[in-house]
Amino acid sequence: MRWMSWAWILFGPLAGFAGEQGSAPAGAPGNWTRDQAAHLLRRAGFGGCYKDIGSLHAMGRDKAVDYLVDFEKIPQTVPDYPGRRLNPKLQGIGRKLSPEDRRSLGDILRRIENGHMQALREWWVRKMILTPRPFEEKMTLFWHGHFCSGFEEVRRWDFMFEQNRLLRRMCLGSFRDLTLAISKDPAMLVYLDGNLSTKGKPNENFARELMELFTLGEGVVYTEKDVLEAARALTGWRVKPGQAGSEFARDRHDDGEKEFLGEKGRWGLEDIVDRVLKTPECSKFLAAKLLVFLSYAILLPGRLNAWPGSCATPIITCAKPSDLCSRAISSIAGMSSRHRSNRPSNSLLDPIGPWKWSR
Fold first, then answer.
1. How many Cβ atoms sit within 10 Å of the Cβ of residue 270?
2. From CA 162, how far away is CA 155, in angstroms rounded?
3. Spatial contact of 161 and 83, defined as CB atoms under 8 Å apart
4. How far is it, in rounded angstroms, from Cα 37 to Cα 247?
5. Higher confidence at residue 95 or residue 353?
6. φ, ψ (nearest 5 deg) of residue 276
């Protein structure tokens, strides 16, 4: 499902926003004010200056929503990060050196990695400030906090950069496709030890976080046995030795029968992800995270089923995770100011979540 069709589901119901009143531009709905344009920029981006708010207000509500959500039509003016990976041959020289020289080379390589990582952080912050496509960066930031990885554990700036590009590329696509892609992502494979998980020695870290942090919530639906069985199903994926990207090594995969969430089969990665995404708990979990992130609100118990806005159908009655998320987001732009936090909502790094790259 393309999120272009979610333009009004996402940010359309702005009429419910309680803020300062002002005259509407020609062709705009009568209740479309500068204050609402600023509100929309805070929700769909990181806020804006007086000129940005004025430009969005002048578009009228319909075109303003389309402009922010349908960002693929807007040329990207911020250059990509220019860093390049060191020649692998340089790193292989260490095997021919004395122990002392090897340590010295290791220190040099670590300083290069750390320097690239710091430059990469600065590049992304600059991109969030200057991008003409703020909603793209807002959702990239959301997924970065959701599918978090840390440079302290990964120790490869290029892995972190490729993960960032992956999150940006898939930020408004299928949640299933994104979950599968992040499960094979080199940075994630290193960060949660999937790279070490093999037949006979499954590592539970990613399997546990897949359910606890990424799809269901802590202790929801699954059991410790489900974690172990999922870990077995996820074995076999690893970073390509000496290369970029990842690969599936069939001889490292446990292809035996597993019992996961009450069903038996010779499950693999896609089977586990599909089974988890079918649960209504997954949809509720993700919808709640999107609401909290995009609205800067504290989601109180029971509010998910009756969130203020234009969502007529309770979120948990929708069949697909994408439907549930879209209905959850549908009320964000329609929230009145009383539902927002008192924290400054136009701060660049305000709704950051687990900012793992800032170490």
1. 13
2. 13
3. yes
4. 46
5. 95
6. -65, -40
DSSP conformation letters of 164-191: HHHHHHTTTS-HHHHHHHHHS-HHHHHH
Please name the residues in contact with 12: beta carbons below 8 A apart, sequence gap of 6 or more: 61, 65, 310, 330, 333, 334
Q: Give backbone dihedrals phi and psi of 43, rounded to 5 degrees, phi first.
A: -75, -45
Segment 210-233, tens digit of pLDDT: 999 999 999 899 999 999 999 999
Burial class, 49, CB count within 10 angstroms (exposed 0-12 / middle 13-18 / buried 19+): exposed
pTM given for the model: 0.78
- Measured in degrees and rounded to the nearest 5, phi and psi for residue 150 equal -125, 135
Read off the pLDDT band of 37 (50, 70, 90): very high
Give the number of other CB atoms < 10 A from CB of residue 294. Answer: 23
Q: 259: which strand partners?
A: 264
Indicate whether 353 pLDDT > 60.
Answer: no
